[in-house]
Amino acid sequence: QLQLVESGGGLVQPGGSLRLSCVASGLGFTTDYYAIGWFRQAPGKDREDVSCISSSSNGGSTTYVDSVKGRFTISRDNAKNTVYLQMNSLKPEDTGVYYCAAGWMTCPAPEWDYWGQGTQVTVSS
User: Fold this and answer.
1) Closest CA to 38 of 120, 121, 102, 111
2) Are 57 and 105 in contact (CB under 8 A)?
3) pLDDT per residue as tens digits for the range 27-38
């Protein structure tokens, strides 16, 4: 069973930065087979795809929703089974619960099979 745990959320002022972490466990030696996506959801709104990084065996390519391009960066430390989302120049509309999810190989994955519990990001003055 693959388990994902997000951390790094908090309260920041507009223009500030946060780095979210998604730590995976239970991968064994199959870590290179999984894509990791970041999603966010605000109250009363649908869940939104934010960013994704494909598995290393699939090239490790990255994608971003247009609203975060140039501000957010997704990366992976394979040795630590950790995916990061560096968020800079944060805006109030970035507020929400951020989730990471794992799926097979590609961005987007055919199915997002595993989900973390979420971490709250609040951008407010």
Assistant:
1) 102
2) yes
3) 665 668 999 999
Please state, in angstroms and rounded to a whole number, the distance separating the CA atoms of residues 100 and 29.
20
Nearest by Cα to 21 from 84, 73, 77, 74: 84
Cβ count near 57 (within 10 Å): 12
Residue 66: φ, ψ to 5°: -55, -35
Half-sphere exposure of 104 (CA within 13 A, CB side): 2
β-sheet bridge partners, residue 15: none
For 112, phi then psi, to 5°, come to -90, 100
- For residues 31 and 49, give the distance between their C-alpha atoms in angstroms, rounded to a whole number: 22
Q: How far, in Å, CA of 29 to CA of 90, rounded?
A: 36
Query: What are the tens digits of pLDDT across the range 81-109?
Result: 999 999 999 999 999 999 999 999 999 99
End-to-end CA distance of the chain: 40
